[in-house]
Specification:
This is NUDIX hydrolase. It holds the Pfam family NUDIX. Belongs to the Nudix hydrolase family. Keywords: Hydrolase. Its cofactor is Mg(2+). α2 runs antiparallel to α3. This protein has two domains: 35 residues; 134 residues, Alpha-Beta Complex (Nucleoside Triphosphate Pyrophosphohydrolase). By secondary structure, the chain is of the alpha+beta class. Helices cover 21% and strands 41% of the residues. Strands 4, 5, 6, 7, 9, 10 and 12 form a seven-stranded mixed sheet that branches. Strands 1-2-3 form a three-stranded antiparallel sheet, with no helix packed on it.
Length: 189
């Protein structure tokens, strides 16, 4: 699956004339592109490059596994579904299985891809691959050295309360809760 599709034939397509690297970090890089607009004028676009990420809606006994951790950009603790970035050359499904066990201590015996989506297409290329499982077995937690979190299993009602309280406010977890609710109401995603 190609995450990026160039559409030079589309009338809104912006041709890249120049790319200027600004920053290269461990997780992201920043560049400024000069583009030709559809009307022939030029403009600049600030672009965050990211290797992509995975997230997992994991249900255990009709409860969703979530992790609670501090998020520095928001300066607060957040409740989120298990997730993490893709390692170089890693397939999304393998990353989803890895992240689920690392953060929750549960292994998925089977997993289903629900959707892949962009997080902030106005300035970032990050694609998150969302997976689902309710086929879990106990494994082992393997947190990264700089990762501090707790895992819990919450009901749909608790998840909706966390949204109202602002404890859940990230897009991937909101999408997960709404998908879970749809599955509960209709039997499918």
């Amino acid at each position: 699956m190609s995450d990026k599709i160039k559409q030079p034939q589309h009338p809104f397509y912006e041709e890249t004339l120049e790319t200027k690297p600004i920053f290269q970090g461990r997780m992201i890089s920043l560049q400024v592109d000069t583009v030709r607009l559809p009307n022939g004028e030029t403009a600049t676009r600030e672009i965050v490059r990211h290797p992509g990420a995975v997230a997992v809606v994991a249900l255990l006994d009709d409860k969703m596994l979530v992790v609670e951790q501090f998020r520095k950009p928001l300066e607060k603790v957040q409740v989120e579904i298990p997730a993490g970035k893709l390692d170089a050359g890693e397939e999304p499904e393998a990353a989803a299985l890895r992240e689920l066990e690392e953060e929750t201590g549960y292994r998925a015996r089977s997993i289903v891809h629900l959707q892949s989506f962009s997080t902030s297409p106005g300035f970032a290329e990050e694609i998150v691959h969302l997976y689902f499982t309710d086929d879990l077995e106990k494994g082992e937690v393997h947190l990264d050295d700089e990762e501090f979190l707790t895992c819990e299993a919450i009901t749909l009602e608790q998840a909706q309360q966390y949204i109202r309280e602002g404890r859940i406010c990230d897009a991937k977890t909101l999408l997960a809760v709404y998908a879970w609710r749809m599955r509960t109401l209709t039997g499918s995603f």
